[in-house]
Specification:
histidinol-phosphate transaminase activity, 4-stranded antiparallel beta sheet, binds pyridoxal-5'-phosphate, alpha/beta, 7-stranded mixed beta sheet, 354 residues, Aspartate Aminotransferase, domain 1, histidine biosynthesis, 2 domains, 11 helices, Aspartate Aminotransferase, domain 2
Length: 354
């Protein structure tokens, strides 16, 4: 705490990202990155952008990338917003759509950045408990609120809600914005993008960090009716007009255009996930059903924290959350087949020793 900090800075409770350790080479299954590289077209596009004029500011409207996203997702350009990662879009959305007073609602076990943003903007929030099997209880999101945020699939559980189930919630919350955070939607779920025309209060946020292997580049997208997108533009242009640099704009457009590569990497991740689940279940672990590029698992004999530490010792990093309800679970990102074989072997070995 410093006397120079503003009152706002004093009350912040910042997000703690997963480790990116430098001490040795780990099998990194802790931050839900894609194990495959981005499309080769991305690298070619970035190279071209580097050779172009970096003296000049990038396009503040991200027009070409918005057009590429609009084409890929069958929307109009004015229904697309681009941000520096979906985290930035979430941060802008909390400012753009939620007014202090009634609480913002999100699940109790969910992406921990939501409460950080609520805190940043002085917004009260209320968490809605998942049921015993970790399902998001859509009927518990009451309309006395400032707005709703739900990731689908949820993180860190990986549980998915079929997209048409959101209709009653969207109708009941017609006066508020409902944000569906689809960071992991490409690993087996169906996007709520098809609902946008029916619901002016729906904002769908996606990212290129996961299914397009571009966590290092920081590009996110939001889709909604035009006035929601305009709201986001107003907030963005009150912070920083140039949130994406020229390389990211060019690389992201190329990623969206390489559909075959995208489909193939998603298929590979899904196949490896299913294999991993089967192996873990054979070892007696229970695994929450996942449609994401990670799984939440619990071991029948070894407490999660201990297993986390033993795996780390063996050079395998996963994520442990010291948090009620999930403190006996580990979240394990899906790596390559070889990485997951090593992970399963390590769990087997640790189980045999302890
Ligand atoms: C549910 C969820 N939303 C959003 C993000 C942020 O993704 P990015 O800022 O890389 O687009 C993450 C990242 O892990 C996430 O798990």
């Amino acid at each position: 705490m410093s006397k120079y900090w503003s009152d706002l800075t004093k009350r912040l409770v910042p997000y703690v990202p997963g480790e990116q350790p430098k001490d040795k080479t780990y099998i990194k299954l802790n931050t839900n990155e894609n194990p495959y590289p981005p499309s080769p077209r991305v690298l070619a596009a970035i190279q071209q952008a580097v050779q172009a004029d970096l003296r000049l500011y990038p396009d503040p409207a991200c027009q070409e990338l918005r057009q590429a996203a609009a084409r890929r997702f069958g929307r109009s350009e004015r229904q697309v917003f681009i941000g520096n990662g979906s985290d930035e879009i979430l941060a802008f959305s909390f400012a753009a759509f939620f007014t202090p007073g009634a609480p913002v609602l999100f699940p109790d076990v969910t992406y921990s950045f939501y409460k950080v943003y609520a805190n940043l903007y002085g917004l009260p929030y209320e968490t809605i408990a998942l049921d015993e099997e970790f399902h998001v209880r859509l009927d518990a999101f009451h309309p006395e609120c400032a707005g709703v945020v739900i990731p689908n699939p949820n993180a860190p559980t990986g549980k998915y809600v079929p997209v048409d189930s959101f209709r009653p919630l969207l109708e009941e919350h017609a006066e508020h914005v409902v944000i569906l955070d689809e960071a992991y939607i490409d690993f087996g779920g169906e996007s709520a993008l098809k609902l946008i025309d029916d619901y002016p209060n729906l904002l769908v946020i996606q990212t290129l960090s996961k299914s397009r292997s571009l966590a290092g580049m920081r590009v996110g997208m939001a889709f909604g009716q035009e006035d929601l997108i305009e709201g986001l533009e107003r907030v963005k242009n009150s912070f920083n007009s140039y949130t994406l640099d020229r390389m990211a704009l060019a690389g992201a457009a190329a990623a969206l255009e390489d559909e075959d590569y995208f489909q193939e990497t998603c298929r590979n991740v899904i196949r490896t996930r299913e294999w991993t689940v089967k192996q873990l279940e054979e070892l007696g672990c229970s695994v929450i059903e996942s449609k994401a590029n990670f799984v939440m698992m619990t071991h029948p004999a070894i407490p999660a924290k201990r297993l986390f530490e033993e795996l780390r010792e063996q050079g395998i990093l996963v994520r442990y959350f010291a948090q009620p309800r999930i403190d006996n679970y580990l979240r394990v990102s899906i790596g390559t087949d070889e990485e997951m074989k090593q992970f399963v072997d390590a769990v087997r070995k640790i189980g045999g020793i302890i």
